[in-house]
Amino acid sequence: MKKHPSDRANFWHTLWAKNTIGFHQEEISPFLEKYWRYDPKKVFVPLCGKTKDMIWLSQKKHDVIGVEFNETAVRDFFIDKSHKTKQQNNMQIFYNKNIQIYCGDFFALPQINTPLIFDRAALVALSQNLRQQYVNYLKKITPENAEILLITYEYPQHEMPGPPFSIPQKIVQNLYSQYQNVDKLDERNVLDILPMFQQRLSFMKECVYRIH
Ligand SMILES: C[S@@+](CC[C@H](N)C(=O)[O-])C[C@H]1O[C@@H](n2cnc3c(N)ncnc32)[C@H](O)[C@@H]1O
């Protein structure tokens, strides 16, 4: 049976409510630090959770725009920080000087005019039937020449249901075929550093792509 959008949202709201947010990392993404080579510009972080990668980006003088539909995540991100809120396009926006987070559904976002996009654990969080919709909507709301740094996982999908889902290179290339270049930059084995998957998976790689 097809999942209703509110079921999908409830799945994530339950994880946040139970604080079972294994995807959240205390450290900055090593691939972000290694491959982010851009001068200060606006950067969009879809399905941002409360990732500290946004703090790193803002420290590099980027203006960061995130979207996250779980309010606890957004409030946690801004905890102890002086932020304000405003209402725009029926969405609440939490913001401080360099970071603004739309608290709402990605698929309801207005135009986001950022030339850069950082996707860690967003595409891989989405079930198969939503992925092309996600890529198409991302393309629609960002400028024609926007550039994406995308981080994915690869593992034998039959060994674990996900999320995170395994998205092999061929699928990445198909999903982003509207873009001229889908370049794989690097990969690393991550099973050693992700104990929660060690019992279930025979291998797990993290891969990084530059897409433009
Ligand atoms: C796997 S987590 C990744 C969070 C973040 N990118 C990180 O690296 O920690 C995916 C996040 O997307 C949020 N999410 C899922 N679907 C969404 C949607 N349609 N609109 C906004 N947020 C969504 C979930 O609440 C969750 O916090």
Characterization of this structure:
It is a single chain. The protein is an alpha/beta fold and 212 residues long. Helices cover 28% and strands 25% of the residues. The protein has a 9-stranded mixed sheet with strand order 3-4-5-2-1-6-7-9-8, with helices on both faces. The model has no long low-confidence stretch (mean pLDDT 96). The structure holds S-adenosylmethionine. Residues 12, 23-24, 47-49, 51, 67-70, 73, 105-107, 120-122, 125 line the site of S-adenosylmethionine. Residues 12, 23-24, 47-49, 51, 67-70, 73, 105-107, 120-122, 125 line the site of S-adenosylmethionine (SAM).
Low-pLDDT stretches are none
Compute the average pLDDT: 96
Q: How many DSSP-defined strands?
A: 9
Domains (count) = 1
Going by helix content, strand content and strand pairing, the class is: alpha/beta
Separation of the first and last Cα atoms: 35 Å
Strand order of the largest sheet: 3-4-5-2-1-6-7-9-8
Q: Per CATH, what is the topology?
A: Rossmann fold
Task: Return the string of H and E elements.
Answer: HHEHEHEEEEHEHEHE
The CATH class, by name, is Alpha Beta
The percent range for helix content is: 25-40%
Small molecules held by this entry: S-adenosylmethionine
